Amino acid sequence: MEKSAPNPTAIATKWALIYVVVSIVITYGFQLLNIDQNSSVKYIGYLPFIAFCFLAQKEYKDQLGGFITFGQAFNPGFRYSLFGGLLLAIFIYIYLGILSPEMLTKAMEQQQTAMADKGMSQEQIDKALEMGTKYGAIFGAIATAISTLVFGCIVALVSAAILKKERTAFDIPDEQVTSDPTV
After folding, report:
1. Residues in contact with 146: Cβ distance below 8 Å, sequence separation at least 6, in sequence order
2. Contact 36, 138 (CB under 8 A)
């Protein structure tokens, strides 16, 4: 019976779903603890993303028998980043638009202060806030999808370089090894 090749899409999707669930928990944890959105603590959210990207690539390597090229290792990492970014963008849209619109309002207030500090006129600030209030959830979702994919590609490239282990002439595939020592 022929062994089927592992599916990088299935592996990437599994880890992307796990990442989005963890991100949702972290998001609501930050909200419950009333952690400032501009606090450096927000960078903790990057750790699960990096870890799950690496784990997706490692799982794929293990299913390939422990040997993987750079391109093969990058593949599930890229897919994980793409799927994770899209799923997280959907959550961000629902979160800012429906579940917690007060978080969008809070962000708009912070932006208003930042724009005033930059010397923008009140008319410009009002126009920007109107647009942000109207389209903030969509902008947040699009920015999340794009930034997650870009950051994920960087992470996938680095971890692919770490995980790369190509088969050499001395490595015998498991299916060719016999248990008879006289052969």
Report:
1. 85
2. no
